Structure formats: structure tokens, C-alpha cells
């Protein structure tokens, strides 16, 4: 009996520890910091480092380069929170500052507020170290993911797509976040327009998705909007152009008309709100213009159609108008309202509803011979 009671007690204790463990995991914070939290940690760490140079005067000169390096890293992380290089630089400079602070004699008596600030800085360093390790793990997981091109995103939706109706020509919009964020059903009611945009995708990923997300849906035409994410990742123009060409070849093989949308202009008008909104550095307008000029020529040579949004969205400096975007890249609702009529005007020239068959001619009554018995 004692043995049985002992086993039951152990089971209850094990169950209790399991419950506590699950609850702790549920309440545990994510190792990977959200962009907003990372930005707060950045700014607070710089404040604490600067305060340390005041409370310990001998730290002021030797740590000035460390603080500046940390500040520049924080600016880069505002633009790209998931970037590993500036995260590593920030972490190394934070560690170097703490090491120097430990080696320099402190004034006596040392203020309690200053002591708390140094303790907080150590905690920030430990938190940043945890974030950096989680960031590396997430990047490694992305490299080995079986669905690098996000083909699964629209798998279920594609299964539910009905056969096209010739009286209402189907058009697929393939693109990145600019397409993904566009609520086509609101701007083009009663049209068979299918959105197959995925945020942050480059042209090579769209090329991989052409079969499942375009060709298999049997559209009359496809509107391809690509390139801005490529430029942000410094992908060469020739590579982007080759991907355009291969997408056009695939569509032509399936007798699908191709409409290439221009790469949208960008602007820096919102950078005062967020340093990440300085867009012309990562997407130089000269590259955008070169890509659009190539696209225009390519469409003329290959019989594709060029859809130019620039005239509607650009200001007198060739930049994306400030009120048409909230971040200098992605159109807001006002931007989409200007894009919609430009798009529909081009689409209507390329695809037309099937004409209804002419009504059948009325049949003539057959004259019957009258027969008489003689």
C-alpha cells in the first residue's frame, strides 16, 4: 500500500511540476525582441552609457567612440531591426563599455543612482545578448525552411478559386507588400482580380510562385509588381531584369498577357518620424529610374504592357508624394486611390470580356404544299 501511495504521490508531484513548467513557459517573454522594444533598449542603453561618463569622469574620453558606435548601430537597427551586423556591433560596444567601467576606479562615495544605472546597463547587455542569439537562431531557421518562397501562403485559397468566366476576365496581381496591402475588391468591385502579393518578396521568389499563384489560376492577364524589395537588398539590376524576362516567358507559354508595373518612387519625407523611413539610401532613385526604363523598353520589344504609376505618384522632384505614403515606400489609401484608375485603364486595353454570341436569326416558317384528292 505504501508503495502505491508513494507512486501516486510522485505522479502528483510530477504533474504539479509539469503544470508549473507549462505556466512558466506561457508567461516567459520572447527571446527575440520586437522592433519597438529593441529600439527602446537601444535608446536607453545609450542614455545609460552617457550617464556613466558623467558619474565616472575617467570614463568620458575612452568610452566616447563606443557610445558613438552604439548610436550608429541603433540608427541602422531602426531601419532594419532584424539586421544581425549592427546588433552584433551594438552588443560588442556595450560589453566593451561595461568592461571599461569595471576597470576604472569609482568616485567615493559613489551615488546610489549611478550604481543602479550601471546595474541596469548590465541587464540591458544581458537582454541584448539573448536577443542576438535568438536572432541568429531565427536566421538559421530561415535558411533551412522547406518553404523559402512562401508557396504555402495561398495554397488553400488557390484550391478554392473557381474556373474563370470569359465574361469577366480574370487578372492576377503578383507582387510584394505594395500588392499584398492593396484591397483589390474595394478598388475594383465586381472584377475577377486576384491578389497574390506577399510582403518583402523579391523577384526571384515571385518567379518561383508563378506556376502555383498565377499559371494554375488560368487568368487572362497578370500584373507583375516587383523590384523594390530587390533594390533594398542590393540585388543587381541585371538579376532583377533576368527574373522579369523569365516571368514573361512563362506567362507567354501559357498564353497569359503580361502587364509589368513600374517600380514605385520612394521618398525620405517621413524620416523625421522614424530614421528607418530614409528610403533613398537603400532604394536609390537612379536605380529605380534605370529599372523602369529597361522595363518600358522590354515591354515594347516583347509585346508586354508597361503600367506606369510614376506620373500619378511622383512629385516635382521625382519622389513619392508625402501624402500618398506613411513611410516613403508603401502607398496609403490615398496612394491606392490614385493607382487604381491608372491600373484599370491599362487592364481594360489588354483584356476585354468575351463578346456575347449574336442572337440566332429567326427561322423562316416552312411552307407546306397543300395536297388534294382528285
Task: Characterise this structure.
It is a single chain. With 374 residues, the chain is of the alpha/beta class. The chain has two domains: 35-141, no CATH class; 151-350, Rossmann fold (3-Layer(aba) Sandwich). It has 14 helices and five strands. The chain has helices at 2-27, 35-55, 60-79, 84-103, 112-144, 155-160, 177-180, 184-187, 203-213, 228-232, 237-253, 285-302, 310-313, 333-350, and strands at residues 171-175, 193-197, 221-225, 257-261, 305-307. A five-stranded parallel beta sheet has the order 2-1-3-4-5, with helices on both faces. Helix 12 (285-302) links the parallel strand 4 (257-261) and strand 5 (305-307). Helix 2 (35-55) runs parallel beside helix 4 and helix 2 packs antiparallel against helix 5. The termini are far apart.
Brief account:
The protein is of the alpha/beta class. It is built from 14 helices and five strands.
**Low-confidence spans:** 16-28, 370-374
Radius of gyration (Å): 31 Å
Cα end-to-end separation: 123 Å
Order of helices and strands: HHHHHHEHHEHEHHEHEHH
Oligomeric state of the chains in view: single chain
CATH top level assignment of the largest domain? Alpha Beta
| Shape call | elongated
The percent range for helix content is 55-70%
Number of helices: 14
The strand order across the widest sheet is: 2-1-3-4-5
- CATH homologous superfamily identity of the largest domain: SGNH hydrolase
Based on helices, strands and strand pairing, what is the structural class? alpha/beta
Supply database-style keywords.
374 residues, alpha/beta, Rossmann fold, 2 domains, five-stranded parallel β-sheet, 14 helices, disordered C terminus
Amino acid at each position: 500500500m505504501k508503495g502505491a501511495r508513494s507512486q501516486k504521490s510522485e505522479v502528483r508531484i510530477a504533474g504539479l511540476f509539469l503544470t508549473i513548467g507549462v505556466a512558466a513557459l506561457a508567461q516567459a517573454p520572447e527571446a527575440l525582441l520586437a522592433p519597438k522594444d529593441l529600439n527602446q533598449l537601444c535608446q536607453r542603453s545609450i542614455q545609460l552609457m552617457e550617464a556613466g561618463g558623467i558619474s565616472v569622469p575617467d570614463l568620458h574620453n575612452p568610452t566616447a567612440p563606443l557610445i558613438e558606435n552604439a548610436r550608429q548601430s541603433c540608427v541602422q537597427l531602426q531601419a532594419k531591426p532584424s539586421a544581425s551586423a549592427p546588433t552584433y556591433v551594438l552588443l560588442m560596444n556595450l560589453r566593451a563599455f561595461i568592461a571599461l567601467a569595471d576597470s576604472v576606479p569609482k568616485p567615493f562615495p559613489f551615488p546610489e543612482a549611478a550604481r543602479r544605472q550601471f546595474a541596469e546597463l548590465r541587464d540591458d547587455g544581458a537582454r541584448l545578448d539573448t536577443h542576438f542569439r535568438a536572432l541568429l537562431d531565427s536566421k538559421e531557421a530561415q535558411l533551412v525552411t522547406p518553404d523559402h518562397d512562401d508557396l504555402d501562403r495561398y495554397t488553400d485559397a488557390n484550391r478554392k478559386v473557381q474556373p474563370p468566366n470569359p465574361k469577366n476576365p480574370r487578372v492576377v496581381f503578383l507582387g510584394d507588400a505594395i500588392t499584398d496591402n492593396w484591397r483589390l475588391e474595394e478598388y475594383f468591385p465586381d472584377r475577377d482580380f486576384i491578389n497574390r502579393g506577399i510582403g518583402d518578396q523579391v523577384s526571384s521568389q515571385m518567379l518561383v510562385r508563378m506556376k502555383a499563384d498565377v499559371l494554375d489560376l488560368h487568368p487572362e492577364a497578370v500584373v507583375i509588381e516587383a523590384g523594390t524589395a530587390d533594390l533594398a537588398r542590393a540585388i543587381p539590376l541585371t538579376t532583377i531584369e533576368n527574373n522579369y524576362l523569365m516571368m514573361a516567358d512563362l506567362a507567354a507559354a501559357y498564353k497569359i498577357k503580361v502587364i509589368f508595373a513600374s517600380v514605385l518612387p520612394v521618398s525620405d519625407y517621413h524620416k523625421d518620424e522614424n530614421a528607418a523611413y530614409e528610403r533613398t539610401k537603400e532604394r536609390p532613385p537612379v536605380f529605380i529610374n534605370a529599372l523602369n526604363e529597361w522595363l518600358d523598353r522590354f515591354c515594347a520589344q516583347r509585346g508586354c504592357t508597361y503600367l506606369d504609376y510614376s506620373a500619378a505618384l511622383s512629385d516635382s522632384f521625382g519622389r513619392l508624394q508625402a501624402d500618398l505614403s506613411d513611410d516613403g515606400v508603401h502607398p496609403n489609401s490615398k496612394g491606392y486611390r490614385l493607382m487604381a484608375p491608372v491600373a484599370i485603364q491599362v487592364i481594360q486595353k489588354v483584356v476585354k470580356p468575351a463578346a456575347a454570341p449574336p442572337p440566332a436569326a429567326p427561322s423562316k416558317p416552312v411552307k407546306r404544299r397543300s395536297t388534294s384528292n382528285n
